[in-house]
C-alpha cells in the first residue's frame, strides 16, 4: 500500500476492524499524532490525556509505571477516549513465549486486552509470541504492532531481524497491523501496514540516555511513516501540553498532506 494513498483510502482496504477504524479516525480528526503519556500518577495521566485528547489519534500508555493504578483509571481513560475520539495503545512490548504472553495480555493486574485497542511485541521469541497474543486479541478485535526497529542508539533490531519481523507480520496480517519502525519498508502486493515512529521532537535531538529525536516532517514525509509518537516534546518541563500537542498535530498533518499530494 503505497505511502501516497490517504489514510481513508487505506482504511477501506483493511480487514482488521481496529486498524480500519483507526485509519478512519486519523482522517476524521486530521491527526497522525500519538502522545506517549509517561507519567506516574493516575491524576497526572488523566489530566494529560484530557489536555492532549483533542489533538491526538492515539494515546500511548506504559500502564505499569502508574503508582496508583486501578481499574477506575482504565474506565476513566476509556471515557476520555470516547469524549475526544482517540484510541489507546499500551506500549507493553511483550517478549516471552506464546503461553506466557497470553496470560500477561489477558490477566494479572492490568488486563491489557480488555481495554487497549493496540499493543505491541518483540519478535525475539519467534512466531509463538504472535500466536499467543493473537489467541487473546483476535476475538476481541484488537490489533498489534511488531517492533521492527527502535529509536534508541545501539538498537539490535535491524537488518535480518527487521526483515524477518516484516515476514511474520505478513503471515499474521489479520492481527498484526503494522510496525514500530524508523521508516517505511519496501512493500509487497497486498501490504497495508501502519507505521508508527517514536523518537520524535521539534526542539531537541537527544535526551542523553540513548533516545534520538527526529523532526515530524522527516518521519512522515522523508521516511514514510504514518504516526508520530511524541512524549516529552509535549509534556516536558515548562511545556503547555495542549499547545504543544496542537503544534505537533499540525506539523505531522502538514507533512502527511505534502506526502499524499506528491503523487
Ligand atoms: P519521548 O519522551 O518522546 O522520548 O517518549 C518516547 C516514547 O516512545 C516512550 O514512551 C518510549 O518508551 C517509547 N519508545 C521509544 O522511545 N522508542 C522505541 O523504539 C519504542 C518506544 Br518501541
UniProtKB/TrEMBL annotation:
It is an enzyme of class 4 (lyase). Its EC number is 4.1.1.23. Pathway: Pyrimidine metabolism; UMP biosynthesis via de novo pathway; UMP from orotate: step 2/2. InterPro entries: Aldolase_TIM, OMPdecase, OMPdecase_AS, OMPdeCOase_dom, RibuloseP-bd_barrel. Keywords: Decarboxylase, Lyase, Pyrimidine biosynthesis. Gene3D superfamilies: Aldolase class I. It catalyses: orotidine 5'-phosphate + H(+) = UMP + CO2. Pfam families: OMPdecase. Transmembrane segments: none annotated. Substrate binds at residues 38, 60, 151, 211, 231-232. The active site is at 91 (for ompdecase activity), 93 (for ompdecase activity), 96 (for ompdecase activity). Residues 32-248 form the Orotidine 5'-phosphate decarboxylase domain. GO terms for biological process: 'de novo' pyrimidine nucleobase biosynthetic process; 'de novo' UMP biosynthetic process. One of its GO terms (molecular function) is orotate phosphoribosyltransferase activity. Belongs to the OMP decarboxylase family. This is Orotidine 5'-phosphate decarboxylase.
Amino acid at each position: 500500500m503505497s505511502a501516497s494513498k490517504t489514510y481513508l483510502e487505506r482504511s477501506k482496504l483493511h480487514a482488521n476492524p481496529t486498524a480500519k477504524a483507526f485509519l478512519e479516525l486519523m482522517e476524521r480528526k486530521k491527526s497522525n499524532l500519538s502522545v506517549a503519556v509517561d507519567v506516574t500518577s493516575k491524576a497526572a495521566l488523566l489530566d494529560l490525556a484530557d489536555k492532549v485528547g483533542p489533538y491526538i489519534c492515539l494515546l500511548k500508555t506504559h500502564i505499569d509505571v502508574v503508582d496508583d493504578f486501578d481499574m477506575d483509571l482504565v474506565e476513566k481513560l476509556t471515557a476520555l477516549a470516547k469524549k475526544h475520539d482517540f484510541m489507546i495503545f499500551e506500549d507493553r512490548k511483550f517478549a516471552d513465549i506464546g503461553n506466557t504472553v497470553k496470560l500477561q495480555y489477558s490477566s494479572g493486574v492490568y488486563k491489557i486486552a480488555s481495554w487497549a485497542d493496540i499493543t505491541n511485541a518483540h519478535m525475539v521469541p519467534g512466531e509463538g509470541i504472535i500466536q499467543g497474543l493473537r489467541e487473546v486479541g483476535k476475538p476481541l478485535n484488537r490489533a498489534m504492532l511488531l517492533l521492527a526497529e527502535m529509536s534508541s542508539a545501539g538498537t539490535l533490531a535491524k537488518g535480518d531481524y527487521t526483515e524477518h519481523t516484516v515476514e511474520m507480520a505478513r503471515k499474521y496480517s489479520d492481527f498484526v497491523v503494522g510496525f514500530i519502525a524508523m521508516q517505511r519498508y519496501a512493500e509487497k502486493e497486498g501490504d497495508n501496514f501502519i507505521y508508527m515512529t517514536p523518537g520524535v521532537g521539534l526542539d531537541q535531538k537527544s535526551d542523553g540516555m540513548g533516545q534520538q529525536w527526529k523532526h515530524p516532517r522527516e518521519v512522515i514525509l522523508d521516511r514514510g511513516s504514518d504516526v508520530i509518537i511524541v512524549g516529552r516534546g509535549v509534556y516536558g518541563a515548562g511545556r503547555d501540553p495542549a499547545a504543544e500537542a496542537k503544534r505537533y498535530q499540525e506539523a505531522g498533518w502538514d507533512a502527511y498532506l505534502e506526502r499524499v499530494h506528491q503523487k
